[in-house]
Amino acid sequence: MNRSKAIERISDPSEKWDIIIIGGGATGLGAAVDAASRGFRPLLLEQHDFTKGTSSRSTKLVHGGVRYLKQGNISLVLEALKERGLMCANAPHLAHDLAFVIPIYNWIDTPFYGIGLKVYDRMAGKLGLGHSKILSVEETLERVPTVETDGLINGVVYHDAQFDDSRLGINLAETAVEHGGTVANYMKVIGLLKNDDVVCGVRLRDEETGNEYEVKGGAVINATGVFVDAVLQMDNPEAKPIVAPSQGIHMVLPKSFLPGNSAVMVPKTKDGRVLFAVPWHDSVVVGTTDTSVKEVSLEPRPLKEEIEFVFSHAQHYLSKDPHPSDVRSFFAGLRPLIKAGDDSNTSALSRDHSILISPTGLITIAGGKWTTYRRMAQDVIDQAETVAGFDSRPCNTHHLQVHGWTKQKPRRFDHLSVYGSDAALIEDLVEENPSLGEPLHAELPYIKAEVIWSTRHEMARSIEDVLARRTRSLLLGARASMEAAPEVARLMAGELGHDESWQRQQIEAYNQQARGYLMPEGMDL
Prior knowledge:
Blueprint: H1 3-11, E1 17-22, H2 26-37, E2 42-45, E3 61-62, H3 66-71, H4 74-90, E4 96-104, H5 109-124, E5 133-135, H6 137-143, E6 154-162, H7 165-178, E7 182-184, E8 187-195, E9 198-206, E10 212-222, H8 228-235, E11 243-254, E12 263-266, E13 275-280, E14 283-287, E15 291-292, H9 304-317, E16 329-338, E17 353-357, E18 363-367, H10 373-388, H11 423-432, H12 448-457, H13 463-470, H14 473-476, H15 478-496, H16 500-514
Parallel strand pairs: 1-2, 1-10, 2-7, 4-12, 10-18
Antiparallel strand pairs: 3-6, 4-6, 5-6, 8-9, 9-10, 11-14, 11-15, 11-16, 12-13, 13-14, 17-18
């Protein structure tokens, strides 16, 4: 991907776009891939960086949703299980099987979850990842040796999948480009263009240069997640909000808190929420919360009560109690849930997606989750074909390999497996310049070559882009990432032609952001 070339196309008035997509998260990127693979010319515009918002702040799970099965939302579970299987097949370098253990502390729960998870297995059909079974206490502790043993009766194991969310987002952007699409980050839509009260394009601003452009297309899709209401009101100032944002936070701990390769799922905490402890990139992600919020932000921050909730439940269900000094980072994300009457209890709102077509022809898609991104994209491009008056073309993404598809392992650096087939090219950079094989930081798994690669080929434009999303340094160690920031700035400046002043500004901005991921000082836990 090359941002300069994308800007050239955007600034060329002779360029004709079939579909304009606002939003570079999971939904927008999926839509760009779907449209491009059908042979359309899509243009995707993201106001910040790809997956900057919700789509880089998930629990890192690709799942059918065991709790949705309990709620009776069979159709959502069936769809999600199918999509889970397709994602693992289409992006095996990023999505893979993960065993989950439910520790049982009440006798009545054993048959309840044992039978329920057998139903879950059957619903997955040929796309299933593994069979569930009841475990003895010994088998439970063999899989999750740090689970709380006091009152432990047995356990149940089942299978879902996990992935790297922002890495998949980058690979989807690359896939869209490979099929003829155009994507650009740091391009903010500041207005909608209309012809006879019908939306026919957008006005946008390059956030790096301040230059403004107008582009037209057959259909315009609003796929901006928690920000969809802002675009709806851009179209109609009196439009009523359709999203009830919900915040979820996660705590990242060292691997020692959950050794082994299995995750822990607590299906019902005292307040009815689900809690996960998931091994991820040699760390452990613990979460999540489900808190109704009124304001949306690109940088949501964990609330004090959310931190207390995650901490207290981690201490309750893990035999090794985490302390504030153990926390590598806290991160928060916002879910774009669809409003349904009283939305104060967002945990009760459906994770289904909805598509709204305004009287002006603006297409808005909201709701959903990463697992079903491909189906969401298929549905919204089907609608775009109708709105734009295009002849219907079949969806081609069911078995479309995502950029980087491979089952081969890297030659030298194991952590590069998330780059898939690009790992070999990154290792080539190290062979050409051995200094690029040096670690960015002793406490992080990344090497300098990744900074060069993401700047040259993945549209990384800032320290944050590299440390938060191209690598996952900010989540795996916020303080360590701050210490790595000067070297990242130096490497990026050499690639982008920036001076020392840019480096200083970048380091200062990144450190200010990263401090918000640290354990708050003075909290009484």
